[in-house]
Task: structure prediction
Amino acid sequence: MSRAGNDIFQSVPEKSMEYFQVPLINANGFREYDVRWMIDKELNYQGIVVLGKAFGTQLQKEYNISEVVVGFDYRKYSENVKNAFVIGLLSAGMNVIDIGLSLSPMVYFAQHVLNVKGCAMITASHNENGWTGIKLGFDLSRTFGPEGIKRFKDIVNSGEYLEGRGSYTTKEGMIGKYIDDVDKNIHLQKKLKIVVATGNGTAGIIAPEIMRRAGFEVVELNTNLDWDFPNFNPNPEDIGFLESIGKCVREEKADIGIGIDGDGDRLGVVDEKGEEVFSDKVGLIIARDLIKQYPGSTFVVDVKTTGQFLTDEILKAGNANIVLWKTGHSYIKSKVQELNALAGFERSGHMFFNSPIGRGYDDACLAAVQFCRIMSKYDKSVSELLSTLPKSFQSPTMSPYCDDQKKYDVVKAVLKSYVEDHDKGNLVAGFKIKELISVNGIRVVFEDNSWGLVRASSNKPALVVVAESFGTKKRLYDIIDDITTRLSKFPEIGEFDQTMPPYKGEG
Result:
């Protein structure tokens, strides 16, 4: 065993000799189901080597795994982060298979192809430039949840790591194999014109080719690789990103616009009018199609997802089993496996397909192909198909700043206030509370089935606020106003990353 000689959680001055000698790993970077830091400010390269040592130790001691697949996303510093992490893995005796520049689902795919249970994807996903992180896997299609991350943090902090001399190999051609796999068994009823936007992130070299090979006419938008992300941060929940896709869809008279995040595991969709389609509604359309082919199937959806999954008549007719679960790719992946669910959907755009469609992990390219394939079967446009769904009004996903050390306490206090209103039978935003769902934060369900959600973000210092109205648009604004009024009482709450557009009196 080797032992680190310093307290890795201490502060290390950025411009100092110690910066190159002492591991810097901010303790706040260990989150619920992955790890993320601001590079240089919260994590240095000595710290990344330590993370590799600790992960190699954990895989061997707890899971008897000695091989690990490693990939990295397209950021200026990601390959250096990967190299430092690999040094740590090798020094702990791990055998490393480096597949190079990748999407997260490509790393999971490589695990299956190579039959390697360990994986590490160097990515900050949709976070802004300056962030880095690692998605850590310990089994096929499974990444760490809270317990795995806690044990990882404990091993890092202990300073006790296995010593060894691992091996390093590269595996070329994984991009081509992944593209072939996503496109297998895709049969279109008609050719559609698709705008593909990747925000200059990694998916730009992969997603357009997948859609072309599947048989679609493709218009590329910001698909050239540029680690400065000069147009929009590749985040399918970012309104600006989606509006840019919508503008291109209208100009090109395209049928659908799709946006894919920085590591290729989250999907955003824009209809033929250039209007955003929230990803949970995309999931609902896919689930409606799948339940006709596979009646009695189980679908896992996260707590931010539309309530229409629970009330949809087509899903009911197909005896669909709908399971509401915690937000987070590791939570949903794990639940999809545990229940042998056919698919899982998150409001954020993570979509998970189990056999016979996929292998249980979240894959935006696969989701895009499946959604567009389904749309090729209809004479209706996306907006026309959406109009057949029961009417609801949804808010964007909004995230007010809240310190990592305080956000969970704020959510507990908000939950307490709603419990008091529920128990007293008080009217909240004009309606009584029917149900409080606390599987992940607090989802307040009202008598008219409208709902609002407050939860702590799992990957940054922020809360998450979402709502849906089954009545009027004003009702949606009333629910959001109630939530924001409650949050305004906490000095810990900072600015929102985005807010509701001004209410114009419609609906």
